[in-house]
Design brief:
Elements: E1 5-9, H1 13-21, E2 26-30, H2 45-57, E3 61-66, H3 75-88, E4 92-95, H4 98-107, E5 113-115, H5 124-132, E6 137-139, H6 146-154, E7 161-168, H7 180-185, E8 230-232, H8 237-242, E9 247-250, H9 257-272, H10 277-284, E10 292-293, E11 315-325, E12 329-334, E13 338-339, E14 343-347, E15 355-357, E16 362-363, E17 371-372, E18 378-382, E19 392-396, H11 398-405
């Protein structure tokens, strides 16, 4: 069985560097035109070139999303955009609109086209349509079960790659094609401007009984009746690969560098056999997330039920490592408060589960202090572990320690 590609998201250059540092084989970003994350920091064409060069220097690939649904006026622009993306060094464009696929492939046959999950490709007949149009990869609809993925794989050419989401937020609408945001706020999710209306807190009431709410509240804040659980397939990586998936995709172009680093690191080690699965599961609980589920892959829809909208976070990202200093010291950039005596966990590609006690905290000017409490300020601290720029430090929450010891 060929090891699957690990594909990571990046909303900015810092996230891209984290994805590469922690082991992604490829990174996907949004460009200045037709991407589905209008709120994300879109990469300019100059930055796409820089990102492609950075990825290629490190032996990785760069894909650019062009997955908004196209208007008539945008088809001519897409033809020119395809040629520019190819010249900038993009390894593929991720496209959802069938007209955009046709226009871009006609204008620039040498630019590989990946069919976005928004195209909701769920069967081998549809996959063959895209393959015959020149697509080299299908990002499968999230509604597919593993057995259906395997059947699609059996009935399509092996050179047509299959990609599937393995981790991250999920949308309650069909393959992400939602009208709720456009209806409530005039911001279209299908045009990259979703305001995540499904994450709002809702109550149900019956029109003839105004003021009387149905007793479905899960806590004092109400119930997020449209807000799905997050996807987590850490335990099912082999199942996805056996079904024919050649690229495992992490959702999260709106996420932080810490989120990207943590999730990429965990799945990299899962693919490489670098740590026990239960240890890596613990890593995935160190990021902010909703309750986890396995999505649609096993047909157990009870696992996909809406959650209560509450995020869970066992860890706080407190510092980014800038450089390893001499004499067992490390230079850091503070991100959240930590104090002398706190246990600092290390996030780095070389190992999992390392920690040390915070001590010897000094400012960049060399003044001693018992805490790092100024956001983005530079500090130097004692560190018995040899760290590198791009590594990260975090603390565990009191709630986690209580659960662990209780």
């Amino acid at each position: 069985m060929v090891k699957a590609e690990l594909l990571a998201p990046a909303g900015d250059f810092e996230c891209l560097k984290s994805a590469v540092r922690f082991g992604a084989d490829a990174v996907y970003i949004g460009g200045p035109f037709m991407q589905l994350r209008a709120a994300a920091s879109a990469f300019s064409e100059e930055n796409i070139k820089a990102a492609a060069d950075f990825c290629h220097r490190n032996g990785r690939k760069l894909y650019v999303t062009v997955n908004s649904f196209a208007k008539n006026s945008e088809i001519p622009l897409l033809r020119d955009y395809a040629r520019r993306l190819n010249a900038l060094g993009a390894d593929a464009a991720i496209v959802s609109d069938i007209g955009a696929v046709s226009a871009m492939k006609e204008a620039c046959p040498e630019l590989p086209i990946h069919i976005s999950t928004q195209a909701n490709c769920m069967n081998y007949a549809a996959a063959m349509v895209y393959y015959n149009m020149g697509a080299s990869r299908i990002v499968l609809a999230r509604e597919m079960k593993l057995e259906d993925i395997a059947l699609l794989r059996e009935n399509t050419p092996k050179e047509l790659e299959l990609e599937a989401f393995v981790h991250g937020a999920m949308c309650m609408s069909y393959s992400g094609r939602c009208l709720l945001s456009a209806y409530l706020t005039n911001r279209s999710g299908n045009r990259g401007d979703c305001d995540q209306s499904c994450r709002w807190m809702y109550h149900l009431c019956e029109e003839k009984r105004p003021g009387e709410f149905f007793p479905i509240e899960e806590d004092e804040h109400g119930t997020a009746i449209l807000s799905s659980q997050d996807l987590n397939c850490m335990r099912f990586v082999e199942d996805l690969q056996k079904a024919g998936i050649s690229s495992l995709k992490i959702e999260g172009r709106m996420k932080s560098p810490y989120y990207v680093a943590t999730v990429v690191n965990a799945y990299r080690k899962r693919l490489d056999g670098g740590a026990p699965t239960e240890v890596l599961e613990r890593e995935l609980h160190s990021i902010s997330h909703r309750p986890y589920s396995s999505g649609f892959y096993f047909g157990n829809m009870s696992e996909f039920r809406p959650d209560n909208g509450v995020y869970i976070r066992d860890c706080t990202f407190v510092a980014a490592v800038l450089a390893d200093e001499s004499g067992g010291r490390v230079k850091i950039e503070q991100r959240n408060l930590f104090k002398e005596g706190d246990t600092l966990e290390v996030l780095r590609p070389e190992a999992v589960g390392e920690s040390f006690t915070a001590s010897g905290i000094t400012t960049e000017a060399g003044e001693s202090t018992d805490r790092a409490n100024r956001a983005k300020d530079i500090y130097v601290i004692d560190c018995p572990i040899h760290l590198h720029a791009g590594d990260m430090l975090r603390t565990r929450s009191r709630e986690y320690e209580t659960r662990k010891n209780g």
